[in-house]
Amino acid sequence: MHRVIAAAVSTAMAGRRKLQTESSMNSRRWTWISLFAVAALTTVGVARSFLSRPPGPVSQLPEVVDLGTFRERAELTGVIPIRNVGSTPLWVEEVSAGCSCLRAEKPAGEIAPGESADIRLKYTFSGGPGETVDREVQIRTNEGREWKRVLIRAALVDYIASSPWRVNAQLDVGDSLRKEIRLTCTNAAENFRIKSMTSDIPALKVSRLTEGDEPGVEFLLEARRDEFTEAGMVEGTIRVETTSLNSPEVRIPFSITVVPRVNAHPSLVVFQEIEGKLAPAVVEIKSRIPVLVSCRDAALAVRDVSVPGAGENPNEPREISRFELTPPEDASTSPSGTIRFDIEGDPSTKSVEVRYLVVRPE
Questions:
Q1: What pTM was estimated for this model as a whole?
Q2: Could you tell me which of 143, 155, 145, 154 has the C-alpha nearest to residue 82?
């Protein structure tokens, strides 16, 4: 009896082990089937996504880019987004703006399929207050020779304008500067006051010409400097602080070029050897007022070859004087140097200098 029971238990256990083995194999089989199915579906999805893209590079651009509102002469920045919806790399070959107030910078490098890049914009508005202005940017890519167009839009709010908006002046050494500047609010309903006026230009003074301290829509200012004693470029900014909400500060850039009254042309003389001899050169001394010019340079032979005008005394001051310069034959011992011309009659210029260089064939 015991043997029968043991045999029955052994048979039952063997059957159970067989069922567990078959179940485990079925489970692993279904796991692999599931993985293959997921991989197949993913591959199909990627393939469909790739096949759905148009062949070659294809750019996608907005029709309009709105830069918003701002004041006159303020510089706005923005971007034109460009996306490659094609199947091969895209790159921007050229961008062109419709006016000098708009600058567009193309992105560097290629744009991969599905990726985007930015065309950077810098826009300086020059329209009137309350006006909306549209400008056009043209874009050409490696898609073909056709240009694509994007409209750039911006609007100008009411503001305080200066006239001139920028002061450019050219003066002689010793001259004084007097410039009137008019500040006008473009909104006739908005009165404003001037709170302060400052300048970072040395010795330039800014004052009001409009009398009284009442608010108004227009004020007249004066910028002045009594004397410019040195030649060169003088640049800076006048800042006017106002009570206007739209224009709490008005900036007026200045650029002043101060030139000497007397100049030498050319300022560099090159002596070249021709057929074994150094050829002479002619220098003109030009002045804005009649002056007497002389040269006592021992290194070169200097001869006055000025041609007097009708009824003009050759020994009197003139606005143009010409001198012929001849280097000595042994100029190789001094191949370069400076010649000084003395000036009489202009308190701002006592002398001018001309550099020279001797060039001989090797």
A1: 0.50
A2: 143
